[in-house]
Amino acid sequence: MAKQTYDVIVIGTGAGGGMAIKTLCEAGLKVCALNAGRRLDPEKDFRYHRMPWDMNFRGLDDPKRRGESFGYMDNEYTKAAWDHEIPFTVAPGTKWMWPRCNAVGGKTNFWGRSSARFGDIDFKAASLDGYDVDWPITHDEISPFYTRVEKMIGVASTVQNRPSNPDGSYLPPFKFRCLDFILQAGCNKAGVPYLPDRCAQLTEAHEGHPACHFCGECTTGCDVGAFFSTPYFLLPKAEATKNLELRTNALAKNVLVDENGQATGVAYIDRKTKQEVEVYGRAVVVAASCIESSRIMLNSKSRHWPNGIANSSAQLGRNLCDHLYGESARGYLPQLVGQPSFPDHVGDSTIAWMPRWQNLKDPHEENFIRGYSIYPDGGCEEFPGFATDMDGFGSSFKREVKRRYPSPVSFGIQAPSLRSDTNFMDLDPEVKDPYGIPVARMHFEWDENVLKMWEHSKQVCAEVLRAAGGVVEEIGGEQEIPGWSLHETGTCRMGNDPKKFVTNRFGQTHDVPNLYVCDASVFLNCTDKTTTISILAFSLRTSEHLIENFRQGEHKAA
Amino acid sequence: MAGQGIQRREVLRILGTAAAAAQFPGFSKWGLACGHIGNAALQIKPAVYRPQFFTAAEYAMVERLTEIIIPSDDTPGAREAGVAEFIDFMVANDPEPQYPFRVGLAWLNAHAEQTNGKRFVELTPEEQTSLLEPLGFKDKARPGVESGVRFFSLMREFTVTGFYTSEIGFKELDNPALKFYAESPECPHQGDPEHVHVSQSHS
């Protein structure tokens, strides 16, 4: 039997892979997509409006499993959707949490939906403050792709005219809750912005997708697809072209190469049969998420690529950046004590934000470079967590819980680490996963700059809360450990110099022209913004570059 | 009042999605909607709850303590919400709090014997309350009962968790979680962004 050759093999079906698959299929290319897990069933794998008392452990999960959970999205309602089979290791001194949803659609099934564009203040940060290097792209170049993505997925926000946050094309914003108006007044006094977040949640029906029903449980999956995820938004469009073959439970192992070191396909493990299978294509797109993509490429060793495919720069797996997350301050608003309950959590915490306001006029205004953003949160949450620490008992206690219920507020920081030589991933030389593939080994510590942002945020958030008339109860609780944010970037950085960067400015690897990378690993750092909308915009651009290369005859169609 | 002007649709509770909820046989009071998918045997609800971890005597103490922490008054409390069952189930499945609960309950009984000459459950409600006040109220704390204070905090934490994750606890707070809205709910106090007058009108 003659071996079948597809035009493109795409590894991964998350934001990056999903966008590549849709774009390539619609251009008429034959695509074989590999996904490491299964397809999810919303009724079984999402929360699906289950109430706590519908669950064995009230949604708090089996205590025996709690320690294995990879963060807030991996819980009793959704635990079957997260991967716990493929291990990873950490170097001495490193703490790392690595939530991986290997199901079709990946983390887009459960993502936080905040969708701010990167701007020139991010792309040209090195020119401004002298640290590291600029991105090989400007906002003018990527802006049309952002606009197309915003129209495709629907982002609720407002035009805000801020230098750190280019505006885009938006659906009507979420309306402000009581706590937003109160905190906004405090922010005005403290000189800090308080605005509607950019939230990819459909405040009105959009492009055939229904409007949100505001149940507030987005990060446990949406049963109607009222926010962007690839299984609802992109994969059906790709499947409609009949150009897609999606193979599930296909754990990519390595990229295959020919006698010239060019990509010819991918070897994967069929997790059901445990057999290794090869699939062939004229081009390969790696979009398995930052660390997993680097792991696959580092594991793609051959005579041509003894240190991993497309790694002549030795930068593959290096330059790992992540967002520091943590609660900068916490307290309550006396104005809301005793108020009737209010549906504060319909946006699942991304209704408002305090977008980067530091180092805008002068890159060295603060004692740190770059900047961070804050996500305020609070009001009537599903569980009144504050009550577990309250004093007293009896009817007075019960009344006080009810009175305090609408009033808690907290401030979560999102602060970028700086690129460093000591933060990276590599392959563990000894440990292998159950399929014999070397596991990722993490080397990571927070840098001094990001810890200064953390300190700064504690003071500012406490000041904002006090200025809003609130009561500060705690300043700077525990930080989350690295990896928790799911925003890792940098392990296949893009740049013009093949000696210093893995891919060119289009996400095409310098060494292997028919090998492309479509996820956050191509980003130079993680900025103060979240990554998903940028993964979508960059993947769209890379995919169209790939299509153009087919048209030009650089890669021959199947 | 919050919620005015919000077009609130009926909460479409989807029947038959209680999913894995019914694997534990003892939920007599949780009102689980578990009539689904081949679990018919699990619908049998025992009339009397049989504790999985606590002894009968311990369980009686736990039930009484939950009731003291969140009593039935003008609204239902921990007893109606089956909080003692929840605590027994969670502790049965988690080795970590087992020892603190067991030792704490024994401490409380010894403390009751020492103070009032009777076991805790044999005391009058007034005696129970005054015995617990130094453990549960910071401004009534006194030296010598530190281990009792720690135990009471644990008891209160589990009671709060069990109560406010129950259907009765949701009703107590008028918990807005998982309800459906036609549009994004908006602050009803337009014209008073700092909410200064709101707090006065409700104090």
Characterize this entry briefly.
The complex is a heterodimer of chains A (558) and B (203). Chain A is of the alpha/beta class. Helix content of chain A is 23%, strand content 17%.
Number of helices of chain B: 7
Order of helices and strands of chain A: EHEHHEHHHHEHHEEEEHEEEHEEEHEEH
Q: Name the chain pair whose interface involves the most residues.
A: A-B, 72 and 72 residues
- Provide the domain count of chain A: 1
The backbone outline of chain B, from C-alpha atoms, is globular
Return the average pLDDT of chain B rounded to an integer: 80
In total, the number of strands of chain A is 16
Largest sheet of chain A: 7 strands, mixed
Element order of chain B: H for helix, E for strand = HHHHHHH
Rg of chain B, rounded, reads 21 Å
Helix content of chain A: 10-25%
Q: Oligomeric state of the chains?
A: heterodimer
- Our Rg estimate of chain A from Cα atoms comes to 23 Å
The average pLDDT value of chain A, as a whole number, equals 96
The number of E-state strands of chain B comes to 0
N→C terminal distance of chain A: 17 Å
Beta-strand percent range of chain A: 15-25%
Q: What is the SS-derived class of chain A?
A: alpha/beta
